[in-house]
């Protein structure tokens, strides 16, 4: 473990915590991407079923106006995901890594490692420092 000050470790930990929240948001963005894709495919199946049931005009209206529609101006969800990854997620990941490299020798989760050391019962099974 590095000999960085507690204040530095705490500050670096906050940067990492922010990245962890972004990672969670990214996961939700991927869920949105998959949910919307599934919805679009299901709506296409619904249009086929409507046609089979003799409701061609309704199927045509849904298919023309909604199936394959952009979720944001000019974008399907895969494009939203790609833009987020390229313009935000990759940038914060690089900055977080750089902060760790510069201030704590690249160590990850140093704040948690110190917390573990403080909270574990030394010498007790299940409280080992490392695997």
Structure overview:
The protein is mainly alpha-helical. The chain has one domain. It is 73% helix and 0% strand. The chain has four helices and no strands. α1 runs antiparallel to α2 and α1 runs antiparallel to α3 (77-104). The radius of gyration is 24 Å and the shape is elongated. The mean pLDDT is 96. Residues 110-131 are annotated as: Disordered.
Mean model confidence by pLDDT: 96
Domains, number:
1
Q: Tell me the number of strands.
A: 0
Q: Estimate what percentage of residues fall within beta strands.
A: under 5%
- Report the major sheet: none
- Compute the number of helices: 4
Q: How would you spell out the order of helices and strands?
A: HHHH
Helix- and strand-based class?
Answer: mainly alpha
Shape: elongated
Q: Helix amount, in percent? A: over 70%
Radius of gyration: 24 Å
Distance between the termini: 16 Å
Unreliable runs, pLDDT <50, ≥5 residues?
Answer: none
Region (Disordered): 110-131
Keywords for this entry:
single chain; 131 residues; mainly alpha; 4 helices; 73% helix; 0% strand; elongated
Write the layout of secondary structure elements.
Blueprint: H1 6-52, H2 56-65, H3 77-104, H4 110-119
Short overview:
This protein has one domain (6-119). 73% of the residues lie in helices and 0% in strands.
């Amino acid at each position: 473990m590095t000999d960085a000050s507690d204040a530095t470790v705490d500050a670096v930990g906050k940067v990492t915590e922010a990245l962890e929240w972004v990672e969670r948001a990214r996961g939700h963005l991927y869920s949105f991407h998959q949910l919307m894709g599934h919805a679009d495919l299901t709506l296409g199946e619904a249009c086929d079923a409507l046609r089979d049931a003799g409701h061609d005009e309704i199927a045509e209206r849904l298919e023309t106006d909604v199936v394959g529609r952009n979720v944001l101006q000019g974008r399907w969800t895969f494009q939203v995901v790609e833009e987020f990854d390229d313009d935000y997620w990759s940038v914060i990941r690089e900055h977080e890594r750089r902060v760790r490299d510069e201030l704590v020798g690249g160590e990850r989760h140093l704040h948690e490692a110190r917390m573990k050391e403080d909270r574990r019962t030394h010498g007790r099974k299940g409280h080992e420092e490392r695997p």
